[in-house]
Amino acid sequence: ICTKIRWSLEKSSTTWKLFCDTDGDRRPSPFTMLGYGLCPQAIIPLHLSKADHERIETMFGLLHEMRNEGEIETQVLMIVWNMVKSTKDEPMVHNGFTLPFTASKVSLDILDACNTRIANLSRDPDFNGLFVHGGPEVSANDFLK
């Protein structure tokens, strides 16, 4: 099914984007599997919390397992953090990255911890190929750009 839908979309003369909301942290439902089968790349929105981050590690494991078994081709393109608490509506620089607002100290601490875990996972040979911009040779800073 996915191959035929993808073929039809790729033959289209118009530009298209496909957005799929999944239950990725659990054993995937048939609809989630359809979404993974249709999307070559995933942009994953996450609440900035350790609980959401722990759920996403389960999803990464499932995605990687399904990629290894040839069920899907989906790679993680990027992660978008939301629900970040701000203290001011002014840009700030944190660890060399410009944020469009001033984040709270607690949010920055959680952001750093979560980014470090994801960057480490992106370099783990056991997850080779899961991240579009990852790999053992990619530094944490380059991965996080």
Can you put this structure into words, describing what you see?
With 145 residues, the chain is an alpha+beta fold. It contains five helices and six strands, in the order ααβαβββββαα. It has helices at 2-11, 30-38, 50-68, 105-123, 140-144; strands spanning 41-47, 75-82, 86-88, 92-94, 97-99, 102-103. It has a two-stranded parallel ribbon. Strands 3-6 form a two-stranded antiparallel ribbon. The chain has a two-stranded antiparallel ribbon with strand order 4-5.
What value does the average pLDDT take? 87
Low-confidence stretches: none
Helix count?
Answer: 5
What overall form do the CA principal axes indicate?
globular
Instruction: Determine the N-to-C terminus distance.
Output: 35 Å
What structural class results from the helix and strand content?
alpha+beta
Strand content: 15-25%
Secondary-structure blueprint of this entry?
Blueprint: H1 2-11, H2 30-38, E1 41-47, H3 50-68, E2 75-82, E3 86-88, E4 92-94, E5 97-99, E6 102-103, H4 105-123, H5 140-144
Parallel strand pairs: 1-2
Antiparallel strand pairs: 3-6, 4-5
